[in-house]
Amino acid sequence: MHLRFPSKKLVIYGHSKGGCDIALALIKYPELQEHMYGVITMQAPYNGSYMIDWVVNNPVDKAATKVVETLFAGEKAAYEDLAYPSRKAIREQYEFDGRKIPTVNMCTYGGFELKKENLDTINELAGLGSMRFCHDVIMKAVGTKNDGMVAPADGRMPGASLVYLENMYHTEPAMQMPGTEYKNGALSQALLACLLEKISREGTNTT
After folding, report:
1. Which SUPFAM superfamilies match (predicted)?
2. Segment (H or E) for 42
3. What is the DSSP string of 71-83?
């Protein structure tokens, strides 16, 4: 993109682990920062995920492991660095600052109601059921509202502006589900508007 459009800067969206990977890349390779206009993350477990932590430390829990591995395409290496100790080690070495790189974090927690609109196909029911299972595991263990994978407090990046949404579980921004209260396109546009407002208000990006 930079070679094709050298005068343009980019806004990058990252969902879940993608948001963590973006933050790491921008700190690990600071030369990338000059090409960035801003960053938007959706439900990124920046501080870690209790669900991932549980699966990494309790591999005998086959039900939880199956849900997590399905979300991460069956690759253990794709999710094990989202456990709390791994995220802490990464943060200590590569701390992200949402004031230097204008950033908006979207954090959510779900009600996981079984609405009629969500029950049209077996896949939709399975998607809701798997996230509700994870949500209940986290609630039982730590009593924290969550999206089925990430608690809002674990999605907060230093210096970033925060957007909290209710009734959205972890897979919804990436997989449009019938009956969801938030449409993907409208949600992306709203978060972009929040980022532009942050930049205008704080003067963190003038080019």
Report:
1. alpha/beta-Hydrolases (SSF53474)
2. strand 36-42
3. HTTT-GGGTGGGS
Predicted confidence (pLDDT) at residue 40 exceeds the cutoff of 90? yes
Q: What is the pLDDT of residues 66-110, one digit of tens each?
A: 778 777 776 777 788 999 999 999 999 999 999 899 999 999 987
The alpha-helical segments, DSSP class H, found in the chain are 17-28, 50-57, 62-71, 84-93, 122-142, 184-202
The predicted structure's pLDDT at residue 207: 45
Q: Could you tell me the residue ranges of all domains in the chain?
A: 11-171
Residue that is written with structure tokens 């549980």 in the block:
54
Q: Considering the domain delimited by 11-171, tell me its CATH architecture.
A: 3-Layer(aba) Sandwich (3.40)
- Of 202, 138, 122, 197, nearest in space to 170 by CA: 138
User: 30-39, 117-126, 135-144 — which is least confidently predicted?
Assistant: 117-126
Neighbours of 193 (CB within 10 A): 11
